[in-house]
Amino acid sequence: MLRGQTVDLRQSDALDKLDGPFDELAHTVDVRRINSHLTQGRYNIPSVGLFLWRLKAYSVTKTPVTSLEQRNCYTFSVLGNNTPLYTNWEREVEPTQIAGEFNLLYLSAAMPFTETVVVDGVEKLRASAAYYGENKSLVIWAPDWPSKDAIQPIPREKIVPADLSDWDRYRPVRDTVAVDPVLGRILFPPRQPPKKGVKVSYYYGFSADMGGGEYARTLSQPLEYTLYQVGAEQKLKNINEGLAQWDKDQQAHTNDQETKQFQNAIIEITDSGLYEERLNIALKKKQSLQIRAANLKRPVIRLSDRPDQFNISGEEDSYFTLDGLLIAGRGLQMEGSIAGVIIRHSTLVPGWVSRT
Predict the structure, then answer these.
(1) Which of 4, 101, 306, 311 has its CA 20 to 30 A from that of 283?
(2) DSSP codes of every residue in 86-134
């Protein structure tokens, strides 16, 4: 703590922490009680104040993002909305170490980035990689950017923290990428847009293990089922390929015993990728289908802005389940005599078209 001096207005990082849990500035003694109903005090010597954060930090791992309007403008959120970036917690090295900004997530607390933390901590970004890099708070991949022999992920010395609230006027220097951690925006130089897409890993703030997210979930399935794993690293690359393989297996096995083997199917997405598909699912009598994320994954199904993009129909005693997914763009349409539809740990964002 800084003592016996006035505030240095050039210390932007210290000013940003003013009156917070990491305030380093000296204060005069406050004689008011911290629990006073009239005027609260905070800096009385015998007082103890607790700072609590209700949000936890959740990861999103190597997921594609899409450009907004211009090829060089991106958001960390796959939905195209602004989202503050959060830090990934680090465990204290020694038992006697006092928890700092990077240690609080162990206590289910989250410290969001602030502009001054990142701007003043640019040397941390470039030297110690406290914020940027694989298994850190954020990292960006852009294949063949800025050249075909470029190192991936993008090296931290090319990342420039910036205020992109008006990113139409901001121009990154050539061979650099501007990142706004407060809004969750990414900006490439106008004449150097990435040509093979962009992937990101980052942390966002949320209050509980609910909806689609990379947290531990208890997977539930029938006693007998056939599993089809799909994903970028799998033989089956997307959901429709999994559905086609299930249909092919059913047609290849026609006797009663073999047909029963493929009556219940699970299509499991094994990464946190983006899946842009039209899904038309027709379940036969007593069939069940579950489309789910693998544990600790958060895949996104983004439906195009057209009708009939996700249709589910079923005959008697058929069941359909969604588990661990984020679905955006359009709603789900269900028809027929389907017995039940189960939606677990999923986020539905129908009709959301975000424009900035």
Answers:
(1) 306
(2) BPPP---SSTTPPP-TTTGGGGT---B--HHHHHHTHHIIIII-SSBST
| Mean pLDDT within 4-12 | 75
Q: How far apart are CA 156 and CA 236, in angstroms?
A: 34
Share of the chain above pLDDT 90, in %: 47
Count CB-CB contacts under 10 A for residue 139: 22
281-291 per-position pLDDT tens digit? 999 999 999 99
Chain position carrying tokens 């680090």: 90
Residue in 30, 24, 32 with CA at minimum distance from that of residue 5: 24
Pairing state of beta strands 279-283 and 310-314? parallel
Full-model pTM: 0.81
**Pairing between β-strand 279-283 and β-strand 185-187 as defined by DSSP bridges:** unpaired
Q: Residue 145: how many CB atoms within 10 A of its CB?
A: 22
The tokens describing 180, both together, are 């706004």
The one-letter amino acid at 321: T
Q: Which residues, at least 6 apart from 327, have a Cβ–Cβ distance to it below 8 Å?
A: 300, 301, 302, 303, 310, 346, 347, 348, 349, 350
**265 Cβ neighbours under 8 A, 6+ residues apart:** 225, 226, 227, 228, 246, 287, 288, 289, 290
Confidence of residue 122 (pLDDT cuts 50, 70, 90): very low
- Residue range 314-340, pLDDT digits in tens: 999 999 999 999 999 888 889 999 999
Radius of gyration of the chain (CA): 25
Return all residues near 95 (Cβ < 8 A) that are at least 6 apart: none
Distance CA(7)–CA(57), nearest Å, equals 32
**Of 124 and 181, which is predicted with more confidence?**
181
Provide the CB-side half-sphere exposure for 234 (13 A, CA).
Answer: 18
